[in-house]
Amino acid sequence: MKRTRDRYGESSGTESTSASVETLLRELDGGAGSGPSTDVSPARLLDALRTVEGVDEGFRFDETIVKHSLDELLLVLVALRADGTHGKQLMDDLAGTFDADLSPGTVYPRLHDLEESGTIDVHEMVRTKEYTVADETDARDRVRDAMRQHLAIGRVLHHALTDDALFATDAD
C-alpha cells in the first residue's frame, strides 16, 4: 500500500474526519481534479498551502521554527516518500520546501532519535541509509500533537492581532 493513500487526521466518535494527502491537495486546489494526485511532493503541498487566502506571496518559514518542529517535519517528509528516502533527499526537501539550510549535524541526530524511538526504520543500503515510517500510529500522533500546538499558538496570536483592545493602531 502506498503511504500517500494512508489517512491522517482525527476522529470524532465513530465518524471519521480524516483526510488523505490527495484530499488535502484537492481541497487546497479548490476542488480541481477528480482523481487522486500523483504528485504529493512536499513542494506541491507547500505551493497549495500558499494559495490559501491570507498567506502572502512573500511568505517564508523561519528556520528556528522549522528546527523546533524538525522531528514532525521529518516524519511527514519520510511518509510522503512511499518507497523510503535517504538523509540527503530529506535535507534537500527541507531546503526546497521550507528554505531551511540545515546541516547534517542537525538532521541526522534527529533521524537517529526517531529510529531509536521505533517511529522510523532505517535500512542500510550500499552507500546510504534509507528511512521509512515504522510506527504509523506514533508518527501520526506526533504530527497531530505538533499540529495542535502550532494551531493553538496561531489562534492566540491571530486573536491578539484582531482584538482592537490589545494592539491599538495610531489611527485609533
From TrEMBL:
Residues 1-20 are annotated as: Disordered. Transmembrane segments: none annotated. Residues 10-20 have a biased composition (Low complexity). It comes from the Archaea. Residues 76-134 form the Transcription regulator PadR N-terminal domain. InterPro entries: Tscrpt_reg_PadR_N, WH-like_DNA-bd_sf, WH_DNA-bd_sf. This is Gas vesicle protein GvpE.
